Amino acid sequence: MDEPQGLIKPDRRRPEPLWHQAEMALRELVERGEWSSGMQIPNEDRLGEMLGISRITLRHALRNLEEAGLLRREHGRGTFVRSATVVAGVRGLTSFTDEMKSLSLQAGTRLIEANRVPADEEMADALEIAIGDPVVQLKRLRLGNGMPIGIQTSHLPEARVPGLLEDATNVQSLYGWLKEHCGITPVKAKEVYRVGSVAAADSELLQLTAGTPAFEVERIAYDARGPFEYALSTMRADRYEIRSTLYV
């Protein structure tokens, strides 16, 4: 494989570690599309030659890019640019939009439904409001690089989010809108992941056959005042991964 155009080679005279310089150089190739989704990248020997670094230094950079969700290594086959996949694990509390940015994916949102509904027992319990209180319900298709990642239905107490229902069609980052218009800044969230399947009503949007295995995610997000969002999501299992690092 020819050397990619514009490859920024690590320079020992710079203060940053060589592995970090290599990681940034390879990340740049992915982000600008020089290495496209699904493409197999050069082997370690060739990459080390291109960058002028040792195999140990290169492996440090590749491991970081794999953990960030940009690359995937397949035993016996090689290393590939990962397709639009969200990698969930130990991470900070972020919006879907910010999570996409961290993985060098272009976030997209398509509003499916926006309604005012009375809180049922489940919503009321999660949001710490009374049963029957008005709740803004937003059902949205979440996209990464234009490809469906999942369907998310958010429930928010209407009293805390005035104007959200009327402005729903213009909202791309919900957390960004909440901070700007309502002064709501998330401080923590509780999430539960379960194995489920794609409902018939969602199969066309997710571009999957009904009954296909998927992750079902339940999330309650809090700001300084308490819970402000109860979200239920169905995430494509082939584009959403959960990783954990375990310690003794």
From TrEMBL:
Biological process (GO), any one: negative regulation of DNA-templated transcription
Cited InterPro entries: Bact_HTH_transcr_reg, Chorismate_lyase_/UTRA_dom_sf, Tscrpt_reg_HTH_GntR, UTRA, WH-like_DNA-bd_sf, WH_DNA-bd_sf
Keyword Transcription tagged: yes
GO molecular function: DNA binding; DNA-binding transcription factor activity
Sorted UniProt keywords: DNA-binding, Transcription, Transcription regulation
Coiled coil, from the record: none
Pfam families given in the database record: GntR, UTRA
Domain HTH gntR-type: from-to ranges: 16-84
Protein name: GntR family transcriptional regulator
Native species: Devosia insulae DS-56
Phylogenetic classification of the source organism: Bacteria, Pseudomonadati, Pseudomonadota, Alphaproteobacteria, Hyphomicrobiales
